[in-house]
Amino acid sequence: MKTLTTALALIAPVHAGLRFPCSTLTTQRLDPVVEPGKIPSAHVHHIVGGNAFSATMEGDVGARATCTTCQMAEDFSNYWTAQLYFKHPTNGSYHKVPVIPVQPLLGGSDGAKSGLTVYYTQYDLTRDNLNQQKITAFKPGFRMTVGSPTEEGKPQVGLRYQCLQGQNRGPELDSFPTGPCSGGIFTTHHFPACWDGQNLDSPDHQSHMYNTIQYDGFLDAPACPSSHPVRMPQVTYETVWDTTQFNSLWQSGAPNPFVWSFEGSAAGTHADYMFGWKGDALQRAMDKSECFYDGCGSITKQAMSVANQCTIKTTVNEPVEGWLDKLPGR
Ligand SMILES: *[C@@H]1O[C@H](CO)[C@@H](O)[C@H](O)[C@H]1NC(C)=O
């Protein structure tokens, strides 16, 4: 089993893609992809990115937003996953699990406030196969999801958990770790990267895309199929859930006490993507081929102290923090 750490160690000098932090924008029950217009949506999401985020998002998000919590100043996309909660093993109350920045774990430190780290990988992190297809950036209005909250008990390709023991990420797991993790729980959501070339969305928010990931989304992807011939950037989210304050409540041998905000099975994790880059900024970065992480200066970056000032109003006024008798919306 190759972990990201192994993959990174194997990186050849020629490789490309973006990796950058985004601070938390909001944590509330909104989902403009799966439940547009619905206030509140069914369950709580942890959301990062541009300030055009709202229950209903149509058209060119990148043209409407005026700030972003992401380091790439021209990226007004929104990225979100379900929020993680701790379920008290004896009294059944729920507590939101805090999020901490990912980058320190990857050897950087960037001043992000909670949030998640986003990748736009051109092909893979090793670029062993140089016959790669051209990467076409997403278009305004594009959106997609990966995974499903209702895939009960079935591991989903590209959706992974790791049990952090200090700086050690450990093996990738299909489901929640089975014992306390001293450094928290690391989750990875890899999206599919082959597009049908026509639809900005589809009824299930997935069938306009095709997933060529076999095990790890950072490694060689096979060619896109003729049904979905257009190779898009491989979008990935990494999140560190700081579960450490709950470890003392996890008795040895007891089952995993962490649940997603919809309280489905662990395998039912999912993530949503709403494209919102300004103009051709993402395409410019994808056309570069000799650098990784920053787009070779093709994209303007902002200090995270500036990104952290980007906020939106809370639309759904209900508690999502502290001890809760039940999960919001459940
Ligand atoms: C459950 O336990 C937590 C932590 O001790 C406490 O704060 C919370 O109020 C308890 N919930 C109930 C319903 O008793």
UniProtKB/TrEMBL annotation:
It comes from the Eukaryota. Keywords: Signal. Residues 1-16 form the signal peptide. Residues 31-277 form the DUF1996 domain. The keyword Cell wall biogenesis/degradation does not apply. Pfam families: DUF1996. This is DUF1996 domain-containing protein. It comes from Dichotomopilus funicola.
